[in-house]
Amino acid sequence: MRGGTSKAVFLAADDLPPPGEERDALVLGLFGSPDPRQIDGLGGADLLTSKLAIIGPPTRGDADLDYTFGQVSITEPVVDYDLNCGNISAAVGAYAVDERLVTVTEPVTTVRIHNTNTGKVLVAHVPVVAGHAAVKGDLVVDGVPGSGAAIALDYADTAGGVTGSLLPTGATRDVLETPRGPVEVTIVDLANLSVFFPAEAVGMTGTEGPEEVTAAHVEAVEAVKRAAADRLGIAGDGLVPVPVAVAPFRPYETISGGTVDDADLCARVIGGRPPALHKAYPGTVSATTAVAAALAGSVVVDAVGTARSGPLRIGHPSGIMEASAAVIDGQVTEATYLRTARRLAEGVAYVPR
Predict the structure, then answer these.
(1) Are 113 and 58 in contact (CB under 8 A)?
(2) pLDDT tens digit string along 271-302?
(3) How far is CA 306 from each of CA 142, 248, 286, 339, rounded to the nearest angstrom?
(4) Residue 86, domain extent
(5) pLDDT tens for each residue of 79-122
(6) Is residue 168 part of a domain?
C-alpha cells in the first residue's frame, strides 16, 4: 500500500514467525535485502519505499488493531523497529477499513491504531464510500502524483513513547557537544522521538536536495543524533532520535523541479540505514515539528520566528507539508496532519529458502 509519500508491504502478524531473527530473515528475503536495487524482492530500493507494516489483533482495550512498523535496510541485513512511520500510518487506517478490522461507518470511520513500536495509540479518521476506504478526493500531497481522499491522523496522545515525557530532558532547549562544537537542540518525544537543531550548525542551509547533501553533512547530522541519544541514555545506533535540521524559510527548488515560494520554515531529515536525505517529510515528524513550534524557546520557534499553535507549513525536498498542533499547560491537545493512501496490490509473495 501507498501511504502519503511512502510505500509498505502489509503482512498479517499471524502469517509470520514470532518477533526475532527468523521473522527478520523472512522479511529481508521478501524485500530482497541487502541489495542496493532490491532486485530479488518487493523492496523499492529507496528509504521511503522499503517499509513494512505488520497488522494483528489489538493487545490493548483502547485500540482496534496492533500495527508494527519496520524500516527494512536496503544495504544491511537489518530491520529497524524503533520508530513509527506516519505516512504508512494513514495506509493502516485504510487497510483496517477494507479488511473490516473495525466497524465501518460512513462518511468517516475512526480507527484506533496501537503502534507497538512506541506503545502509543494514534487515531486515523478514514473517509468511507460504499463501505470501502475512499481513494478519490481533492487532497494534494507534495511528492505524490494527483490527488486523493484525505485521511486525518491524530497523534495528540502519543507523547513519551520512548522516554516517557514530551520533553525528555525537561527543557525546551539543550546544548550538545559534537565534533563541530556545541549545538543547541530541542528534543521532543511525540509520534517519533526527534531532535531539532539549526541547519547552519551542521553546515547546511535547510534547502538542500539529495544532490546537495554531502558526506560531511551526513556525518555532522549523525554526530548530533548520537549526542542526543547519549544525553537520553538510549542506543546511538538506532533510527531515533530522528535528526531534523531546521532553518528560517527561504525559496528553493524541489526535487521535481518546482519552486517553493512560501512556508513557515525549511526542514530536512537525514536518517535511515544508511543515513540519507528524506526526499519528502516524515508524517510523524511533521506532528512533532508542529508541537515544537508551539513550545516557547525551542529551536523550531527560532526558525519560525514566534511560538505558535495551529497550522504549520513545513518546506521539505518535495514541497510543503502542513501539520497542526496545540499545547496547553504542557499537554498536547492537538497534533494532526492529512495524508492520502490506497491499496496498490494484493496476493502471494515468494521468499527464497
Answers:
(1) no
(2) 999 999 999 999 999 999 999 999 999 999 99
(3) 25, 11, 17, 27
(4) 2-158
(5) 999 999 999 999 999 999 999 999 999 999 999 999 999 999 99
(6) no
